[in-house]
Write a structure and sequence with these properties.
Radius of gyration: 19 Å
Strand order of the largest sheet: 1-2-3-4-5-6-7
CATH class: Alpha Beta
Largest sheet: 7 strands, mixed
Shape: globular
Strand content: 15-25%
Structural class: alpha/beta
Order of helices and strands: HEEEEHEHEHHHHEEEEEHEHHH
Amino acid sequence: MGETTVMAQMVSMMERVTPNVFTTTTLRGCNPSFVTTSDGVVVIDTPQLPTRAVAMRKEAESHGRIRYLINTENHVDHIFGNWWFRGAGEVVNHRALYDIFMDPKAALDPFDYALEAIPTDDPEGAALIPDRDDYYQNLPRGTVVFTGDLTLKVGDHTFDCLWTPGHTPGQLAVHVPEERTVFTGDTIFSGCQTWLMTSNVDQWIEALERIRQLDVDHVVPGHGPVVTLDYLHTQRQVLLQWKGAVAEAVAKGWSREETIAKVRFDDKFGPVDVGQAYMMDHIQNNNAGSLWDKLTATGYAKGR
């Protein structure tokens, strides 16, 4: 597949949410997006697949120079593509995101995990991947690093970077009031399995409530189709059911192994997102196991 073909495919996959908001929800990885303004483009998360990252950068730059690249979280499907955006605007990250950016000490090595997708989803991308040391030494991690919230003004648009920890410690929601749109990152998994793992469910529920207060028409999630604010109730129920089921298991005295074996929602909360059907057991086992660890460590016996 040539570069022209990849570019054409990427353009065809971009969904125009509003006249100035573009995203794609059908790639393996997150939903990378960009917003056009009167003074350039703001990119929100980058494609995990190398050829798609190159193509999305070209498409974004066809609307103007890239002013900022905002990452909503540290998970590899949101940040691996930063490599192919080198030199394209300032990289904006929350401090809690920046501190664990592509953390090679993570339980699931991010570089190796990103490469798993290449043979099946982007074989031509193999030629674009640098060696590991070069990648880590030259990866755009962040030139604007902040704590709390941050507001950026770009041309005629406002980008409110709201700290919404829960799914990850440095999680951001990017609210663009002029477009009545919020990009939530993985605070929302729309119509697909939610990854809990190292998350803090109580903080996550608070993050959903904060987003619920926004005056928006369009919610661009980290995974799955674009939705409205009504979907926040669905995401909240997913979190509560996971936590409640594991809390009940703890109250019954189930071991970690018993809980992992018996507490599963693979037949209830939708499929795994694009290209990752083989990860269903990984999600179910680690969601249950991580919640069991947290609930037994803090002594909770009931879901909140």
